[in-house]
Specification:
This protein is of the alpha+beta class and 103 residues long. 50% of the residues lie in helices and 17% in strands.
């Protein structure tokens, strides 16, 4: 399984908490618009992070046991060859008379 994060370098901007406080509007805008990540530090020690809410929701979803199990199941099915092409799937979806397989 390929981890997309291995191919993209994530840059985390580090800011002192005092500087982040003064520039909070700009920092939030950069996180929202550009998807930038921030770590705020107090006395050089990271204390909190800031990210776009969509990224946070994705992170929280990936912590779910049921989501992890679904990913493991689908990966195993793919490796067994139980997957079908997008073309086959679309033909099946568009066919009103054809009964769909239950898995």
């Amino acid at each position: 399984m390929i981890n997309i994060n291995q191919h993209m370098k994530t840059i985390v901007n580090r800011l002192p908490l005092t500087k982040a406080r003064v520039n909070l509007g700009q920092v939030v805008r950069r996180a929202h618009v550009n998807g930038e990540l921030f770590t705020f530090e107090k006395d050089g020690i990271p204390v909190v992070g800031l990210m776009h809410v969509d990224d946070l929701e994705d992170y929280l979803e990936m912590q779910s046991r049921s989501v992890k199990e679904q990913i493991q199941t689908s990966t195993a099915e793919y490796r067994r060859g139980a997957a079908r092409s997008v073309h086959e799937f679309m033909v099946e979806l568009k066919s009103p008379t054809r009964k769909r397989k239950k898995k």
